[in-house]
Specification:
The complex is a heterodimer of chains A (about 80) and B (about 575).
Chain A (H helix, E strand, L loop, with lengths): L11 E5 L4 H5 L7 E2 L1 E4 L6 E5 L2 E5 L1 H4 L3 E4 L8
Antiparallel strand pairs in A: 1-2, 1-6, 3-4, 4-5
Chain B lengths: L17 E6 L5 H9 L16 E4 L8 E4 L11 H11 L4 E7 L3 H12 L5 E6 L1 H6 L2 E3 L1 H8 L3 E3 L8 H11 L8 H4 L4 H12 E3 L6 H8 L3 H50 L4 H7 L4 H30 L1 H14 L8 H7 L3 H7 L6 H14 L3 H12 L3 H25 L8 E4 L7 H35 L2 H16 L7 H6 L18 H13 L4 H10 L2 H31 L1
Parallel strand pairs in B: 1-3, 1-4, 4-5, 5-7
Antiparallel strand pairs in B: 2-3, 6-8
The chains are: A mainly beta (about 80), B alpha/beta (about 575).
Chain lengths: ~80, ~575
């Protein structure tokens, strides 16, 4: 599922990211497990937690980031 | 575009030591630069404040070392203009690199650090923002970090001058030491993993309950209550600038002008000259001695001063990038990404830094759209002051209407520009900075610097403008040329002939397109039309120069031409419509 379409409150894991140096630099890399902060109105960016910070990703980037929900089975959050 | 390549290579004197100041965007490089060189450079709490590099002599370095403030980079991959500048600079013969790390975001900052320690040039790390890290419950083991990076690490709080002396002395010590750290190169180059390992080894995080500011920062980042917060910020800013400015004027500036300054000047002048042309030039309707104080200082300065206080607080708090993220959806409709909200807001101060600030925008298209809209429809702080002086005492509604016209023109103009300028808009991709309480001393310095800059920039052109007006009026030149402009000024815009002086002076400075209207006895409609025309009319001379420098002469001329057409078109339509409706 693309990150932009991801609606869940649960954590998700990033499966695929487009080849973009800035994404890597900002820590948005394959294997990152995180949560959504919010989605801005009018087709605005989606915000996710990366470490202690938040990163805003425009729709066109978030569309190309593939994520999977992490099933929380007794995991400490 | 091509003319800032000259800036890529700074000039070095032979034998002078060279130091590069590097680091991720928004870690405080420019603050450190200001402190180490005593040079004032613009600093703010968002990425991309430094759009080209600055250089200055480092205080306390042996042989007067030259320090270069390199724009922020996340890596050395040349994936942006800033990174290319950094790489070009690294190819120079550099004695040492000072790399600034953000202690609140160490893992990501280490990616660049790991790139740099691989180079032959010695590196010293400034672990900055250590106070904020502490507040967030982050502790970093400095010795362990030094061992892992094989380079000295100095904890600093740049904004309060903590650790900077030690930074300079360490920098002197390591300069010219060819380092022999091979261990890092032999290992795998997976910096992402290595950075994570280092952080796990050196950092301990204690759970702290978030402060009010942390919470406010998070609230601003969700549509609700983010949008109400943005509206409150807008209203608060306007209240401080408009309300505060009116207050300052009424209590301090106008009484001084009317009761002390003007009578005194008139008294002095009347001792030397009798009524006549010279008298008129000095203290008459457009008397230089009076207007050179009244306009820039008594009418405009209170607003300029307050605006820069508000702008500086907004910049240093880290709120602006949040607003950018919030507005991104809307701004994309006019062909720019949310982050360009920053040059737009700077434009309410002055269009010159706003247009230079567009260099941080990723595409040429965005730069053009922002530069055109700022030139066309955003009043600079001085012009806003003039609007308040003209309309504020008569009708607050009309004053608000002028700003509504500005917003509508920005939006419609943007829609049109988005259609006609080819090119794409990159999706926004930014990291939201910490929301911070701005440092008082830095703020004071900042608006002191900006206010001084305004005084120097404004006073001389203002005097020239007033002189032109005074000569034109006192010699009767104005009434004889009035005939030519009558069809536009009088018939179409419905303004008195004398208003054409405002159109002439508006070329010099934007507020001069409004201030002469104060001298005329205008109806509310005329004031409003005059204000709208002045708002949309020509960029001032400095803005024209910067447009030419940043783009091309053709672009500058095109923007100028379209602003004139737009100004007369909209002004005339307002006048004709209202007059028609009133006559019904």
């Amino acid at each position: 599922m693309s990150l932009y379409k991801y609606k869940g409150k649960n954590r998700f894991i990033i499966k695929e990211v487009p080849n973009n140096q800035l994404l890597t630099s900002l820590g948005v890399t394959v294997g990152l497990v995180t949560t959504i902060v919010s989605k801005m109105p009018l087709g605005g960016p989606i915000l996710i937690h990366v470490g202690k910070r938040q990163v805003a990703l425009g729709k066109e980037i978030a569309d190309h980031i593939i994520v999977d929900e992490v099933k929380e089975i007794g995991l400490p959050s | 575009m091509d003319c800032h390549h000259e800036e890529i290579k700074p000039s070095f004197q032979d034998g002078q030591q060279k130091f590069l100041l590097m680091g991720n965007p928004n870690v405080g490089k420019s603050v450190i630069f200001s402190r180490l060189t005593g040079k004032q450079v613009l600093t703010a709490n968002y990425a991309g404040t430094t759009v080209s590099f600055a250089s200055g002599e480092m205080i306390g370095s042996k042989g007067k070392g030259m320090l270069i403030d390199v724009p922020g980079t996340y890596s050395l991959q040349a994936s942006s203009q800033a990174e290319e500048v950094a790489i070009t600079l690294l190819k120079e013969d550099v004695d040492a690199i000072i790399c600034v790390l953000d202690a609140t975001n160490l893992e990501r900052n280490l990616l660049l650090a790991l790139d740099l320690v691989k180079l032959k040039t010695p590196v010293v790390f400034a672990l900055n923002l250590i106070d904020i890290a502490e507040r967030k419950g982050i502790t970093i083991d400095i010795h362990k970090l030094e061992a892992l990076l094989e380079a000295p690490v100095i904890p600093t709080i740049a904004i309060r001058n903590v650790g900077l002396n030690k930074l300079v002395s360490t920098c002197n010590k390591i300069a010219r030491m060819t380092s022999e750290k091979k261990t890092l190169e032999e290992e795998s180059i997976d910096h992402v993993k290595k950075a994570r390992d280092i952080v796990t080894a050196v950092e301990t995080v204690e759970d702290r309950s978030p402060t009010f500011f942390d919470k406010l920062g998070d609230w601003a980042m969700v549509p609700f209550p983010g949008i109400p917060i943005a509206l409150v910020m807008l209203i608060l800013s306007l209240a401080v600038v408009v309300g505060g400015g009116k207050g300052l004027r009424a209590i301090i500036f106008l009484p001084f002008l009317n009761d002390v300054y003007t009578p005194f000047m008139t008294w002095v002048v009347s001792h030397f000259v009798t009524e006549g042309v010279i008298y008129g030039l000095l203290v008459g309707e457009f008397g230089v001695l009076i207007k050179a104080f009244e306009w820039p200082i008594a009418l405009i300065l209170p607003y300029v001063f307050l605006f820069y206080i508000v702008l500086s607080i907004l910049e240093d708090s880290g709120y602006l990038p949040r607003l950018g993220v919030l507005m991104d959806g809307l701004l994309r409709k006019i062909g720019v990404q949310g982050n360009t909200i920053i040059p737009f807001i700077m434009g309410y101060g002055c269009a010159v830094p706003a247009i230079i600030g567009t260099r941080a925008a990723t595409t040429k298209k965005e730069r053009l759209v922002v530069a055109t809209l700022v030139t066309l429809a955003i009043p600079c702080t001085a012009q806003t002051g003039a609007f308040i002086a003209l309309l504020g005492d008569h009708s607050m509604i009309l004053l608000i209407l002028v700003f509504l016209v500005s917003f509508v023109v920005i939006f419609i103009g943007g829609l049109i520009l988005n259609k006609i300028i080819k090119g794409k808009v990159d999706p926004i991709l930014i990291e939201v900075p910490n929301l911070l309480v701005p440092n008082g001393r830095t703020l004071l310095k900042k608006f002191g610097y900006r206010t001084k800059h305004f005084m120097i920039e404004a006073e001389i052109p203002m005097i020239i403008g007033i002189l032109i007006a005074a000569v034109a009026i006192e010699t009767g030149l104005l009434s004889s040329t009035g005939e030519y402009v009558k069809p536009i000024v009088v018939d179409w815009l419905g303004l008195p002939e004398e208003a054409s002086i405002a159109l002439v002076l508006g070329i010099i400075r934007r507020e001069l397109g409004v201030l002469p209207l104060l001298q005329l006895d205008l109806s509310l409609l005329q004031m409003f039309v005059g204000s709208v025309v002045a708002l949309l009319y020509l960029p001032c001379m400095s803005v024209f120069a910067v447009l030419m420098k940043e783009f091309r002469l053709k672009v500058a001329l095109l923007i100028t031409l379209s602003t004139i057409v737009f100004a007369f078109l909209i002004g005339g339509i307002i006048n004709q419509t209202v007059t028609f409706l009133l006559n019904l």
